[in-house]
Amino acid sequence: MAYDFDLITLGAGSGGVAASRRAAMQGARVAIIEGGQVGGTCVLRGCVPKKLLMYAAQFGDAIRESRGYGWAVAEPRFEMAHWAATKAAETKRLEGVYRKLLDGAQVTLVEGWAKLDGPNRVKVGDRVLTAPHILLATGSAPIRDSIPGIDACATSDELLDLQALPPRAALIGGGYIAVEFASMLARLGVEVSMFYRDRLPLRGFDDMLRTAAAAELQAAGISLHPGSAPSRVQRAGEGFLLMLGDDRVSDFPWVLNATGRRPNSAGIGLESLGIQPDQAGAVPVNETLGTTAPGVHAIGDVTNRKNLTPVAIAEGRALADSLFGKVKRQVDLSDIASAVFMLPPIATVGPSEAQLTAEGRAITVFETDFRPMKQAFIGGQERTRMKLLVDTASDRVRAVHMIGADAPEIVQSLAVALRAGATKSDFDRTLAMHPTAAEEFVLMREPSRQLGA
Ligand code: NDP
Q1: CATH class given for the domain over 344-451
Q2: Ligand 1 center to residue 179 CA distance, Å?
């Protein structure tokens, strides 16, 4: 059978674009279908605008701190409308860059919503496209039905389009999005309350990071409500009521729903190929990113494994190389470094102390906790905390955890050392770069404790 294309990709986000370009570079005829803007969540509604808002929040800190360094500056005031206009222009520019990249790679962009239509067929409106390979790269979207009534609240999508910030806000959830936006909004002048059901935010992260994150959020003036997710949210005039159990009710003019994201697998015709999403809505894939339907592959958030942009991109490129290149490749999803862009930021690579202890191996823990010189000079209270988890038997560094200024920049580099199998002795014989915070990672000599076997 003659096909229209060699590969049809559903979704022009980071993963879909990376896979399509790589496939085209290998000589494949590729179509990519997108119903919204080109660029996907990360570029348009996630990582990129979020980090631009983090920079805005950081300037507030910098202006205040500058006084301690001798600058005479007026009281700062943040204008969300100004940021929003600049952000809109920047995301438009980035969308243009993505379109050019597709064009340059001779990938055909088909605008519209795609639906699988049986083997090798995809429908976009009335048009039918055919290919031997179809890639699902449709990403994920905020969950809007986690709590009764929460659908009326804003999600991160709407937050990033606000023209003015509310005076007070409740944030529901204690994951990446809740922690990052709580930290930013508080610095931008919003009175923030966080409601989450665990004892600490950031379930799954190392306890040192979770405890420190809670302390830093509190130090930023955020009111923390652990163990208290609302059972219901109710609209009340222009605002909302949170039903918190024990007849407690709190009212807020604005509420952020940060209760997680769901794979975009509904409405794309999976049933026409007998693909059954799991309970969370994820498309199951095997180790080579194949679904249960022959010729249909999936990458990134729609598979709901490690929902991070670099994972989707790496998977897309590996899949394209495997399908159309000379070498079959797989992506190793172990020990992926990730960051939480609160202020100060968190960065981590490798398992938490609790996860390593549960594996039953003997672990040596090295920790440090200090006030960085930039803070000490002005009497600031923000601290930096670092942790190395070392496999006692092999001396291999299994994990690096940090909260403090520049943590993501530092830990990204250390992730290379971990990937290369660095031992604690390798860290010890690395000379320090002074004066930096990062040097503490090569200066930790005395273990805080030994755990396990
Ligand atoms: P997360 O999965 O990180 O956190 C969801 C939060 O919502 C958790 O605290 C969870 O609580 C809570 N929650 C879920 N359901 C309910 C409920 N019914 N009632 C009350 N609380 C609930 O999701 P996010 O939305 O923060 O982020 C989505 C994903 O996007 C992340 O997992 C990450 O993969 C990605 N992301 C990555 C970023 C980065 O790399 N810096 C930044 C932002 C997002 P509990 O812990 O108790 O289950």
Answers
A1: alpha beta
A2: 9
